[in-house]
């Protein structure tokens, strides 16, 4: 770099030195020299700090791109895992729902069976109670009928039996006994 700058400076000064000492020509030389110095300084600054800056920036960008790719891959993997878990959860839910429906159906059948058995027992008990009440009623009715028959018989006997008839009945009964 220094060599190129020196060569340029020597070439420009030699070209103007041979051409005379015009005032306008010298100004052009100094402008050229200033421009070359400015370009050299800029080249030196860019080379010294700019190259490192742009290299660091490029490395940072490459690193960010690689991290983004890795994050994308991780996200895609996590998405696939989540989708698999979702499918598994759906299958488990469907299975659980089937099992619950079957269990409910069985429970309903058992409850209906038990209710029918209880109803049959209640009917049997009711029939037994009715039979007992019918027998009790028949016995009461027989007692009542016997009582009324006795009352009516006594009434009839009192009306029809007089002392002579009584003697006659007693005689007949004694003969039948002997």
Précis, in short:
The protein is an all-alpha fold and 178 residues long.
Could you characterize what this model shows?
- This protein is mainly alpha-helical.
- Helix content is 95%, strand content 0%.
- The chain has one domain.
- The chain has helices spanning 2-17, 23-160, 163-177.
- The radius of gyration is 67 Å and the shape is rod-shaped.
- The model has no long low-confidence stretch (mean pLDDT 84).
- One of its GO terms (molecular function) is proton-transporting ATP synthase activity, rotational mechanism.
- Component of the F(0) channel, it forms part of the peripheral stalk, linking F(1) to F(0). The b'-subunit is a diverged and duplicated form of b found in plants and photosynthetic bacteria.
- Residues 1-17 form the signal peptide.
Show the helix and strand layout.
Elements: H1 2-17, H2 23-160, H3 163-177
Helix pairs in contact: 1-2
Radius of gyration computed on alpha carbons: 67 Å
Strand content: under 5%
Question: What is the total domain count?
Answer: 1
Please outline the major beta sheet.
Answer: none
Mean pLDDT: 84
Shape: rod-shaped
Structural class: mainly alpha
Low-confidence stretches: none
What is the count of DSSP helices, taking H or I runs of 4+ residues? Answer: 3
Helix residue percentage: over 70%
Calculate the terminal CA-CA distance, rounded to whole Å. Answer: 177 Å
């Amino acid at each position: 770099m220094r060599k190129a700058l020196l060569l340029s400076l020597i070439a420009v000064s030699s070209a103007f030195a041979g051409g005379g000492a015009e005032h306008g020509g010298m100004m052009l030389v100094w402008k050229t020299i200033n421009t070359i110095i400015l370009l050299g300084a800029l080249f030196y600054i860019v080379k010294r700090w700019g190259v490192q800056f742009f290299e660091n920036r490029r490395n940072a960008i490459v690193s960010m791109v690689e991290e983004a790719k890795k994050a994308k891959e991780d996200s895609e993997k996590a998405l696939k895992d989540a989708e698999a878990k979702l499918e598994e959860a759906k299958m488990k839910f469907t299975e659980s729902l089937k099992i619950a429906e079957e269990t409910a159906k069985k429970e309903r059948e058992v409850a209906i069976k038990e209710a029918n058995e209880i109803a049959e027992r209640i009917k049997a008990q009711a029939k037994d109670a009715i039979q007992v009440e019918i027998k009790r009623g028949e016995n009461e009715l027989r007692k009542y009928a016997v009582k009324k028959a006795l009352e009516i018989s006594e009434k009839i006997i009192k009306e029809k039996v007089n002392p002579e008839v009584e003697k006659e009945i007693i005689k007949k009964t004694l003969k039948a006994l002997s």
